[in-house]
Design a protein that fits this description.
Blueprint: H1 9-21, H2 33-54, H3 64-78, H4 88-98, H5 107-124, E1 139-142, E2 147-151, E3 168-174, E4 180-185, H6 187-198, E5 201-202, H7 203-213, H8 219-233, E6 236-238
Helix pairs in contact: 3-4, 4-5, 7-8
InterPro entries: DUF2063, DUF2063_N_sf, NGO1945-like_C
Pfam families: DUF2063, NGO1945_C
């Protein structure tokens, strides 16, 4: 008789995770089938429900069978492992983007899904407190919860039920009262936010560079109110020292 070699706890957990992702795979020994079926259904339904909640608009751009098929393939093929549900939607979107073009959602649908993950990020990202105070020598930094993204279509002006084939930049952020907002960005605001998204800077330093390029224009009068608005909105943050004073 061959000796019995029990699997380790880690192996059993890995086998259980694989079975939950794909119930066609062998189940770990020692678990009653009815209990395993309930647990598997619970975990899979929780993940799918969270994806449905996060992608409440974009999922309507596909038929129900397609949407469920992508969810099942994601669980089986992508092997999501994060214990945090907030990590699942970006992983799902990354998986869909990795599929061959004829198997993945339309570019418009992927754009709306990216926007919805940005909203989730804005809601959950950890960022420092800011009271909105600043001066021209304050170091202004991009808020961790904010994202400014280019999209090849416009689903914000009217809504995802009527997507326009015109490119746009969309900003998502959480203000200092922990409220999530979004809007399209263009013109001076687009230039300003793209600058601070790339790097932290002071208003004085930014202004000096622009005045060299535009010596005959009153750039300060144009930019200062915009900077003030975005600091007040919580998109740009000031760095504070341990005693609460604003760093310069």
């Amino acid at each position: 008789m061959q000796p019995h070699n029990p699997i380790s706890s880690a192996q059993a957990q890995a086998q259980l995770a694989d079975h939950i992702r794909n119930p066609a795979l062998p189940a770990p020994p020692g678990i009653a089938p009815e209990r395993l079926a309930v647990y598997t259904r619970l975990v899979r339904n929780n993940i799918k429900s969270f994806l449905d909640l996060c992608f409440s608009d974009s999922s309507l751009l596909a038929d129900s069978e397609q949407w469920q098929g992508w969810q099942n393939r994601f669980l089986i093929e992508a092997h999501p492992e994060s214990p945090f549900f907030n990590d699942i939607p970006p992983q799902f979107l990354a998986y869909l983007n990795s599929l061959p073009q004829h198997e993945r959602p339309s570019e418009n649908m992927l754009a709306v899904m990216d926007f919805e993950t940005a909203l989730l990020h804005a809601e959950t990202a950890i960022q420092p407190d800011s009271d909105g105070r600043w001066h021209e020598h304050s170091v202004l930094s991009w808020a961790p919860a904010a994202r400014l993204q280019y999209y090849p279509c416009d689903f914000v002006s009217i809504g995802p039920e009527q997507i326009e084939d015109s490119p746009c930049h969309v900003l998502t952020w959480r203000n200092r009262s922990n409220e999530v907002y979004y809007r399209t960005i263009e013109g001076t605001d687009l230039f300003l936010l793209q600058h601070f998204q790339r790097q932290s800077d002071t208003f004085t330093n930014l202004l000096a560079g622009l005045q060299e390029l535009l010596p005959e224009q009153d750039v300060a009068e144009l930019l200062k109110p915009a900077v003030n608005d975005w600091v007040d909105a919580g998109v740009l943050l000031t760095t504070k020292s341990t005693d609460g004073t604003i760093q310069t």
